[in-house]
Amino acid sequence: MSQTIVITGLAQGMGREVVKMLAKSGDAIAGFDMDGDGIASLGTELDALGARHHLEVLDITDRPGILKFRDRVLEKFPRVDTVVSNVGIGFFGPFEEIDLEKALKCLEINVIGAAAIFQAFIPSMRKAGGGKLIAMSSLVGQIPFPFESIYSASKFAISGMVESFQYELSPFGIQVAIIEPAQVSTNFAAKIHVLPPQGSPYRERAGRFIDRDNELIKTATTPVQAAERIVGVIRSPRLKLHNQVDFMSTFFLFLNKVLPKFMRDMILLNHMNIK
Questions:
Q1: What are phi and psi of 24, to 5 degrees?
Q2: pLDDT (tens digit, 9 = 90+) per residue, 199-220?
Q3: What is the CATH number assigned to the segment(s) 4-271?
Q4: How many helices (H) and strands (E) does the chain have?
Q5: What is the model's pTM?
């Protein structure tokens, strides 16, 4: 049975691959992104597939715009079955040196953006007697990595938010899930990896971290592989709360459960070459 699925951040990467897979299966797609060219080309692809869709160019921080988007979607489609919050930006740097105004923007996009799209569609799901809310988080939403303090904070916040409101929404048949990839082979990390300036006491270690991350990305899960697993979560009749899409996140989360902290820390520092 076909569904109507809302997904934010769908113009590129994993989001785009998820949309194409869902559309090929006959699902209706609604979503938005700030990338106007990406939205236009995706619309052309969906038209070629004969898919029903509603795409907009919209900023996740435009909360009145999100409510107008919701109204247009619900006017076009009888109901929305699933909402996937996929918009997010990275943030890299030694905590001592970060620009807190830029950090605030990261938290606004990653956390409040997810809250806004979920909050917009909860009333219609509640009245319909069910639905799914799926948040894209990260491995660092459970295991914080050095030089990613603000990004980690945003992903911890998403986990806390979703785990909290699941208790409020479950009586109405609304299920929730968190997806926690470690690395996917996109240019996501490259956009944020900037060395601290000359003279920074963190420059050398941060450089080693970046070099190691660039190595790991070469063999990371591809957007298509990640999308296949995300679609599997969307299709699941009963959602698990925490979901991984790659071996690295599964492995590290297992170690996080069974090993004492000093051993986990040693493995992490060695893995990222920053001991």
A1: -65, -25
A2: 999 999 999 999 998 888 888 8
A3: 3.40.50.720
A4: 10, 7
A5: 0.94
